[in-house]
Structure formats: C-alpha cells, structure tokens
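Submission checklist for the structure archive. All mandatory fields must be present; incomplete records are returned to the submitter.

[x] Identifier: Transcriptional regulator MalT
[x] Organism: Streptomyces rimosus subsp. rimosus
[x] Residue count: 361
[x] Sequence attached
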Amino acid sequence: MYGKAFAPEYQGELGAALNVNSSYEDVLATADRARHDARTDLERARTSLAVAEANRRLGRVDDARTAWQESYRSARTAGDSGAMSWALWSGGTLARQCGSPALARRLLAHAVALADAGGDRLAHGYSLAGLAETGRIQGDYEAVADLHEQLLEQARRHGEARHMVWAMSGIAQMHRNTGDYEKALELFEESARIAADGDDARGRAWSLRGVADVLSVQGHTERALSLLTEAETICRAMDLASALAYNHKMRGNVLFRAGRYAEACEVYAGALREFEAMREPRGTALARLGLVKSRSRLGGSKDETLAELDELERDFGRIGLRHARDMVIAFRAELLPSASGSPAAPYGATTHRSPAVPATS
C-alpha cells in the first residue's frame, strides 16, 4: 500500500504551504517570500532549496544554480548535514539537466554521504535515485538496473507513491530501450495508475509520456497523441517547462513513426526552441536529431544530413548518452551503404533496436 504523494523538498513551513502538485510559479513566489523572511541559516537553506527546485523546473538554470549554492552555504553554516545533502541533490539534478553528468555524479555522491551521516532517509533515497537516473539516462543500464529495483522496493516498503512512480517508470524506460515493449508498457501503465491514486500529477504526466511512446511504437498513433495531450495539460497547469518540452519532443517522435514527417518537423522545431531557451543540451540534441531525420525523410540533402549526424554523434558522446548515440549510428546506416557493400536499408526498415519499427529519437 502507499499514501498520497508528497514533496519532501518543501521543508519547514513551506511543507504546510505547498504540495507535490503546486505550480512552480506558485512555489517560486511562496519560497521567495519565505526566504526573504528567514530568520535562521536552516530556514534560509530550506527556502533556498525550494527556490532552486522551482527555478530548475521552470528552466531558469542560472537562478536555480545560485539558489542551490545559497542553500548549501546556509546549511553548512547551520551545521545541518541533511540540509546540505538536499542542496547537493538539487545541484546534482541541475547538473544532469544541463548536460554535465560527471558533475552530477560527484554532487549526488556527496549528497548520499551527507544524508547517511545526518540520518536523513529521504535525502539519502532521493540522492541515490539521482545517481541511478544519471546512469540510466547515459544508457549504463547494467550499472543501475539493480539500484532502480532496490529503490522501488524501499519506496514500496515505506509507502512512498512518488518514488514508486519514479523507480517504476525508470525501469520501464530501460525495458523500452532494450526492446521489451510489453514489459515496458505494463510498468508505465502501472506507474500512471499509482501516480493517479497517489495524486502525483507530475509523475502521471511523465508516465503517460512513457505509455504514449510504447503505444506509438506498436502503431497506436492516435491513442498515443491523446495521452500526450492529457500529459501536456498537466505540464502546463504545473508550469513544468522541461517536462513540457520533452512531451513535445515525444509528440514529434509519434508523428515521425506514423510517417507524418512535415508535422513532426514543426513539432520538433518547437521543442528545440523550448530546450534552447532552457539551455538543456540533452533535450536540444534529441530534438535536433528528430528534426534532422524528419527533414531527411522529406527529401533533404543527404550530405547535409550526414554532416548534422556527425555533429550530433559528437554531442551525444560528449554528454555521455549511449542510447541516443546508437540512434544516430542506426539512422546513418539507413543512409549509407554497409561496409560489405550491400545497399543501405530503406527508410522505415528494421534496426537492431526493434524487430518491427525504425529507431526514433
């Protein structure tokens, strides 16, 4: 069993004023006022943490960075290891969002150690989850699959719906990326149900995106688009700028798979503008890949496409995104003759990632 979702990053008086579904503009306004009125270093650390998280979710990376660093300094002055851990968790999560996985791992590992020293179970779990997600996003499934399962078991044991949703959707994503679509769909759908029952709107939005992805791969285009529209409504209500951009990028994927390349181009271009405005390199590169592939399908120059693929492969390699780099390589293989001299696979042919559908970003 599990209870209603809650947001442990809203601490002290903020915990009573805000909840897991508060819009991030409201969170920012409330936390800013509380930070201004803070009387102690610990209060300042807690309110700055909420400011950092709100700005991060809104895509305001400079303000988020300033706030988490302020939170950490205040927590260190207060001598509170748990508060220091939460600040580093926020900083590590921001670093991952900004395409710096090595920095993310350092900050999150330090956060784990501080949470352990301070006996803060939730900060410890969230920081471990951050490390697991960093590895998963980079495609290092072997290293983090067991950790995802352990964190899911801990969340179940303590009845924490929000962390159950996070862990389950992460495991589902790994199954999806390795071609086990039925298992992925089962886990994404269960994750969406738990999020709905636990009143975790953000978790439901991410889970619906996963369900839509798998349904699209299986050819259920209109159902996938409908689920993405539902998730988009949630993202807009909560001011989830990054999640909204990823939702739009996924809509581009769905349209691409359905052969609706002109529509996909338009949606990918919009997502690209959103990611660039937030300076989020992972999303930027993924949206660019979708745009390049769509334009190629519409008859774009092969030489220009190959040049852009080379650049994207370097970007994905720099960020450390193995799965995305594989997608670039797979698409290039469709454009070029193989090393054996046989003709390139036609558009829409199968790839090593799926027995039935072309690789998509």
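[x] Structure attached
Curator remark: The chain has three domains: 1-138, 143-239, 242-361. Residues 168 and 291 are 30 Å apart (CA to CA).
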